[in-house]
Every structure is written in structure tokens, then in C-alpha cells.
Amino acid sequence: MSYSSGVTLSIKKISSTLSLSSWVTLGVVLSVLITTVSVLILVDQFTRSYARREAEARLNQLAWQMQDALDRSMAERYIDVKILAQRPSVREAKDPARMRAVFNELQKNVPNYAWIGFATPDGNVFAAANGMLENQSVAQRPWFQQSQKEFFVGDYHPAVLLEKKLPVMNDPWRFVDIATPIMSLDGQFQGVLGVHLSWNWARDLAKKLLNPANDRYDVEIMIVREDGTVLLGPKELEEKKISSDSFKASLRLPSGSLREVSETGEPYLTGFARTGLNSEYTEMKWTVLVRQPEQVAMSGFKELERQVLFVGCLVGLALMLLAFFLTRRLVSPMNALSAALERRATGAQDVHIPIVSTYYEIQLLSSTLAAMVQREENYLREVRSLNEGLEQRVEDRTSRLHETAIALQQSLDNQRENQIKLEESENELRAILENAHDAFIAIDEDGMVVEWNRQAEQLLGWSRKEAYGHELAEMIVPPEQREMHRRGMKHFLSTGEGVVINNRIEINALRRDGKELPVEMTVGYVQRRTGHLFIAFLHDITDRQAFRHSLQEMALTDILTGLPNRRAFTQKLPEAMARAIREPQQMGLLFMDIDGFKGVNDKYGHEAGDELLVQFAERLIDSVREVDTVARLAGDEFTVILERLHTIADATGVAEKILLTMRRPFILKAATVNVSTSIGVAIYEPNQHTTQDSLVAHADKAMYAAKKAGKNRVEWSTEENTA
Q: Where does it localize (predicted)?
């Protein structure tokens, strides 16, 4: 009786604690909860940072667009004044009526020119648009004083003489002055041509940019002078000085964006850009600020944050419910076994220990406990046949067996919990790699693929099933690089050193369809018991390379004619000389300019000169072969590289063809003109040690010899004309 009482008491004490299913469920739920919260925090931080960067980039782009619009518009005004100064009626400065008609025409085409006028050397206005300020003195005005010798652009300033003569507007009249000296045909100073550009010009540019931007982004645009004065912006800030962080940053950097706090304490995201950095009028250096309340800029992120939180909570709740039901499913056999043990421990000797075969561990435990119970019953029968003095010994032994069973059960519980955690960690890692933005590939020491995520499938065209177990080199390494790849693997395995390990490199990867794809690759390795595991992340850089190539193409192309420029010519000439040595064949260089180009430029203006250059380039391209290279060096100077010449007569034929083509009239918008060209020819012999500079100098001197000989002809490089 004492033995049964002891067992009963022990079972009651154990039953007062939490059950196995409760502990496992609690552990799994906590794990899921911690994981879900951690992921939500990481996603929140990432999206917040990404949203701010995107907003700052958008504002920086708007600032740059406004800066670019100001620079381009001021360049157009610069060209207007230059062209106006070349008009014969203005240069003669004799007939005020003709000059006034020219000024009125320009003011009609460009309404933002509030005043256009010409002042004689003594400072009196000789002629002006609509006769405004005629016969009045402007000798003390800065634009007149500072433009008597060179082109002048004045900064933003209030109206002085014109305030009462111009129509009344909601905003006070403000101007930017543009002035240039006027010289007669014989070089005598005639006076000063002045233009007052209304500040409404800048307001119109801002409205064009601000209207679509404000509808989408609720932004403010400000133009700030170098001394901090707001020239354009909110009414309460105009013509007042500011010292914001974005303005200070614009004095150091050409463009950028940052977060700052306004005068009222409201946080803003501000993009800035600097005007006048690359223009001919460097005095006009203004700062363009485009700012947006941070709350508006980050509104999209707030909505995304709420959606992520909602979805995360739903996923976490689903995972917790799934963990709860799976745990109940796994521990139900243990509960049945424990219930049978408890009933037997309370004295119900007719209860049998069930043999549970759900999984191996519980089967082993149940069969072991059943055997132990059977042995216990045998012991009890033996004890009853012994004297009462042995009862205490039986009770002690039974107690130890019970403790052993509990210890075994706890050990199995710990093993199951560790196994569940391991499986969860493995699933989490696989999910991260599977949803990574970059392609993830893992290979063993033999180069065989052992891991291949979804992004790798999309990037390279091979499914994970197709890639698994195949050699990586045969799948994505171009054929000409496969042997080098295998040697690099062997070298690393034998020495532990590798060029690509732990480095970020750019290579071409081979897709399944046979096309090569530029990627940025990062390779690492993990030391395992069975050898090395190599892991690689691949990122598509097609757009990055295309952008890089477009920049190089722009740097090597003449903007006006589309021909290779001087920089491209200096690259192509040595390459052609090297090919002439390898083949070997003669190579010719033609150096030419346009006879009479300056006269066309002076008579009809720069636009006609540019149109003539474009047509000249087109005819030049049509006159040579596709293997030849046509380039524009500067102004009206052009060169032609003639490759694979069989005889010197080939070069003569091309030059004569060019002369004949250029003698035809050029039909321009302003007039039809007749010009010609003078051509200098230099021949490069592969067996001669002639440098690139020497060859160009010979062709250049031959061209000047053609000009001295009467123009419209071809001259060859000889000892007389190269001396």
C-alpha cells in the first residue's frame, strides 16, 4: 500500500505542471511571433529608407530640370542678343526707325523682353522698342557701363527707369539685363545694345515645371541668389534672405538632396541644383531649390507600412494556428501514453500501456514503457511473495524507474523541439534565398550545381530541376572561358587562393538561349566536413553597361553633324595606322575646310553656318566608302581617313570626287550659297616610321598650300609644303 501511495503522489505533482503539448505549442508560437515581428521591423526599415531615397531623387530631378530649363533659356537669350547685334541696321546705327522696327519684331516674338534699346557712346538712348526711353540717358546704368567692351549679363534687380512706364502688374517689375557692345564693319565702337529680360520669364519656366509636378507631388520651387536672396518662390519669402541647409549645400555641390527643417519648424525633403556652372555667363549662378513636406513625400510609405503590418499580422496568425494544430497532432500519442501511465499509477491495474506506432521515437518509448510496466508487474508479484521488509526496496526501485521514464520523455521532447527549430531555420533561409532580387547559385568542389533560386531561373533561363546536378561551367560560362574557370577552381582548392573569391567582378554569363548577359558576380565559399561549398550572387547589369556605352558614344560624337569628333579622331587614326602595318596597305589622310565659310556665317548668321556644316558633312559621307572614317575636328575643319589604298591614285580619286560634290550649290533656309573646299592629302606608308601627329601636320600643311594656290583644289604633302 505504501508503494501505490507514493506513485500516486508523484503523478499528482507532475500533473500540476504544464503538459508537453502546452510547452511545445508555447515555444513554437513564441518562435513564430519573434520571427514575424523581426521580419516586419526589417521590412519597415528597408521600405522607409527606400521611400526617402526615392523622394529625394525625385526632388533632385525636378531641381535639375528647372536648372536645365533656366540655363537653356538663358542660352537662347544669349543667342538672340548676339544675332540681334549682327543685324546690319543695328551695326550701322544710323536709322532709328529701322532699328526700332527690328526691336519691335524681336519683342513681339519674345514678350518677356520688357525693353530693347540702343544707346550711343555718350549714354543716350538712340532707338528702342516702341520708342520707350528714347533720347533719355542711361549712362549711369550698370549694364551700359559694363558692356562697352564685352558682352554683359546682369543679375536680378528692380526696375529703375522703366517702373513708371511699363504696365502695372500684380508683381513688381524685376529684370535680368543683357547687353553687348556694337561695332561697325570697320571696327568702330557704335554704342551698346541692351535688353531687359522680365523676371516673368523665370516665373513662366517655373509654372511649366511646377504645374505637372505640383499636381503629383505638392512641391515648391525657389530660385535663390548667391547671397541667399529668394528671387522666386513663396510670396512671403521673395526678396528675403534664407540660410537653409539645402542652400548651403548648393554652394558646395552642383546638385543633390537632403532633409531639412523649414523656418516654421516643418520637416521638408529638398532637392537642389546650381545654374550657370557650364555656361558662358558664369555671373548668373543661382540655386534652384525644390522642396516638399516630408509628410507628403512619405505618404506612400505610410500606406505601404500599414499594408505590410496588416499582411504580417495575418501571416503570423496563420503560422501560429498552423503550429498549434501541428503540435497537437504530434503530441497526441504522448498524451495517450501519459494518460495510460497516470491511470495505472492511480491503481487501475487493468489499464494496458498502448503501443503507439505514429513515429519511431514514440513507438520506442511506448514499447519500452510497456515492457517496463510488465517487468514492474512481475516485480510486484515477486514482492508480494516476499516479506514485508522488502517492500521499501521495491518502492525505491520503482521510483527510480519512474524517474528514468520521465528523464527519457524530457530528452525526447528536447530532441523534437531542436529538430523543429532546425527545420524552421532551414525553411526561413530557403525562403530568403528563393525570393532574393539577385540570382543565387551554389556549387560543390566538382563544379556541380546544388542550389539554384527562382531569380537564377528568370535570369539564366534554366529551371532549378534542369540545373541541379549539372556542371555550372557547361551551363552559364561562355565556351572560351570554361577552361580558365576550371583551372581557377583547381588552383583555389589546392592553394586556398582565388581571384574571384570574396570579390565583386563584372563578367558575361551565358543564358540557356545562347545569348550572353553582362552580370555583376560576387563569389564566396563555406568550408564543410565534406569539402567546400561555393556560393555566388549574380546581378544583371545590362542597363548599367548600356548607360556607360551611351556616355562614351556622346563623348566621341560631334553634336551638330553627328560625325566623330576630335577625340574620336585621335582614337581612330592610330588604329587605322596599325591596320595598315598589319595588312600591309597604304593609308591616306585628307584634311580640309570650307572655302568661304566665314562669309556665309557673317552674312547669314550662325544658324546658316551650322546648316552649311551639316550639309557639307552629309555630302562628305556620301563621297567616301563605308570603311573610311569622316570626322569634324573643329569649326569648318574636317578629316577623312582612307584605308586599304591600292595606289596613291585611289586617294586622288576620292579627293577629286569630294571637290566635285562640294561645287554644287548649298540650299540653306536663308539663301542658296556656292562654296568650295581646299583639301590637303598625306599618305602613310607602312614601312615608314611616321607618327600620328606628324601625319596630321603634313595633311594640314598641304591643305594650307591648297588655299595659297587659289583654293578649291587638292594639294599633296611634299617637302616644300611641310617645311
A: Cell membrane
- Domain boundary (296, 314, 333) is at 296
User: Residue 318, exposed/middle/buried by CB under 10 A (0-12, 13-18, 19+)?
Assistant: exposed
Three cell numbers, residue 326: 501541428
What pLDDT, on a 0 to 100 scale, did the predictor assign at position 489? 82
CB 431 within 8 A of CB 421: no
pLDDT on residue 205? 76
- 4 pLDDT exceeds 60? no
CATH number at 460 reads: 3.30.450.20
Query: Of 204, 114, 130, whose CA–CA distance to 167 is shortest?
Result: 114
pTM: 0.41
Please write the tens of the pLDDT for every residue from 151-184: 888 777 776 667 667 776 666 777 788 899 998 8
> Does 676 lie in the same domain as 534?
no
Query: Measuring CA to CA, how many Å separate 236 from each of 41, 61, 546, 571, 708?
Result: 41, 25, 46, 56, 67
Helix (H, G, I), strand (E, B) or coil at 37: helix
Number of compact structural domains in the chain: 3
Region of residue 128 (phi > 0: left; psi between -120 and 50: alpha; otherwise: beta): beta
CB atoms within 10 A of CB 555: 10
What is the mean pLDDT of the segment spanning 271-275? 87
Domain around 494: 436-542
Core vs surface per residue 79-89: b (16+ CB within 10 A) or e: ebbeebbbbeb
**Measuring CA to CA, which residue among 661, 547, 554, 652 is closest to residue 615?**
661
Per mean pLDDT, which range of 1-10, 140-149, 296-305, 376-385 is the poorest? 1-10
More confident residue, 431 or 485: 485
Helix-helix angle 299-345:20-86, to 10 degrees: 170
Residues 644 and 581: their CA atoms lie apart, in Å, by 11
One domain, residues 223 and 286: yes
Amino acid at residue number 351: V
End-to-end CA distance of the chain: 133
Regarding whether 528 and 463 lie in a shared domain, the answer is yes
- pLDDT value for 293: 86
Give the span between the Cα atoms of 16 and 410, in whole angstroms: 16
